[in-house]
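Thread amino acids onto this structure.
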């Protein structure tokens, strides 16, 4: 149930970010939004179909992906959501979008901790990977 609520919060905040204001974005916001989409696409390709799920719960046949963008980030799809969110919230700001961006960040951080606890339980080697690979942003977190 917790996983479903986290996904609902994530998708709800994405909807508000997308539809909570105009789309007259400056060039830098479009560039940041495009970067977010590229990060997302790279993550999907790197993850492999066996591992992809919208829920933070790993599939029964889950394996730890360490290829592509997963060499540098443990949760690149969440990074992609935040890049796109920052692009629209700062490129065409509204109070609704700023609230949605903050809410999205909170939900994604909770989702990161929840997902990592599940991955540790499933893969005893995951804590070693956690020491080497950033969660959302290399050099920061």
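Threaded sequence (141 positions):
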């Amino acid at each position: 149930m917790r996983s479903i609520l986290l996904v609902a919060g994530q998708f709800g905040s994405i909807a508000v970010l997308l539809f909570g204001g105009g789309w007259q974005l400056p060039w830098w916001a479009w560039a940041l939004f495009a970067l977010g989409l590229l990060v997302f696409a790279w993550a999907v390709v790197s993850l492999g179909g066996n591992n992809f799920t919208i829920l933070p719960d790993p599939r029964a046949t889950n394996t730890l992906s360490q290829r592509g963008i997963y060499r540098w980030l443990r949760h690149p799809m969440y990074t992609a959501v935040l890049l796109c969110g920052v692009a629209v919230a700062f490129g065409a700001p509204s109070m609704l979008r700023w609230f949605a961006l903050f809410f999205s960040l909170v939900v994604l951080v909770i989702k990161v901790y929840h997902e990592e606890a599940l991955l540790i339980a499933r893969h005893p080697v995951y804590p070693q990977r956690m020491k080497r690979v950033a969660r959302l942003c290399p050099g920061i977190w």
